[in-house]
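A.,

Following up on our hallway conversation. Structure tokens first:
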């Protein structure tokens, strides 16, 4: 049960917080074309985004969708793909990540399981160990390097999986498509700016 100081709001259903559909807390809320295009496609197909308010301030979020509306090239029968889940550093240590997971799982209890990506990467986001604490485990991985940033620092992208029922069929992913990065969130560690022309922003090693 959430404490009085904590509230989780579905921003896809609450117009007061609609601005958070378009951006994270670390950036000024603003809409941009590729994010709009993604939401136009994903919202009718089950995309959801929830934010966690602590003492009235947004400090955490989880964004998820059925695999057919995912932001990642992850496929799976009745699989929910987590585009992003994170909690601001200043709000760590209160179990907010697990509360966001529980809110998502309560909303999708008929799913076979949950998939996302984890990174062994210079960014503090999407860390494999953070996702493992939420119950995910790695079922596949690729080693890559970024063609533009930290080009001499290889890192690993993991396909992470959390089954929701016994004998659930694990998801698969398109590794080649993953090399293109993502264009639906400018704060994502694998964001592919449209000013960078190569189709693949990552190179598999």
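Then the amino acids I'd put at each of the 205 positions:
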């Amino acid at each position: 049960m959430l404490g009085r100081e904590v509230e989780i709001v579905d921003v896809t259903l609450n117009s007061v917080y609609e601005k958070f559909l378009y951006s994270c807390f670390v950036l000024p809320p603003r809409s941009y074309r590729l994010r709009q295009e993604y939401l136009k496609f994903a919202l009718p197909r089950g995309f959801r985004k929830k934010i966690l308010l602590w003492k009235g301030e947004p400090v955490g979020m989880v964004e998820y969708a059925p695999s057919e509306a995912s932001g990642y090239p992850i496929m799976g029968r009745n699989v929910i793909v987590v585009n992003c889940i994170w909690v601001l550093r200043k709000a760590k240590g209160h179990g907010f990540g697990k509360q966001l997971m529980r809110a998502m799982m309560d909303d999708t209890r008929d799913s076979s399981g949950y998939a996302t990506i984890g990174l062994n990467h210079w960014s503090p986001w999407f860390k494999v160990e953070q996702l493992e604490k939420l119950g995910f485990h790695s079922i596949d991985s690729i080693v890559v390097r970024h063609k533009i940033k930290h080009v001499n620092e290889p890192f690993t992208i993991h396909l992470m999986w959390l089954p929701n029922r016994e004998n659930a069929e694990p998801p698969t992913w398109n590794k080649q498509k993953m090399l293109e990065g993502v264009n639906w969130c400018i704060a994502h560690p694998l964001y592919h700016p449209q000013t960078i022309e190569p189709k693949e922003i990552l190179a598999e090693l």
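The radius of gyration is 16 Å. Curious whether your intuition agrees with the design.

B.
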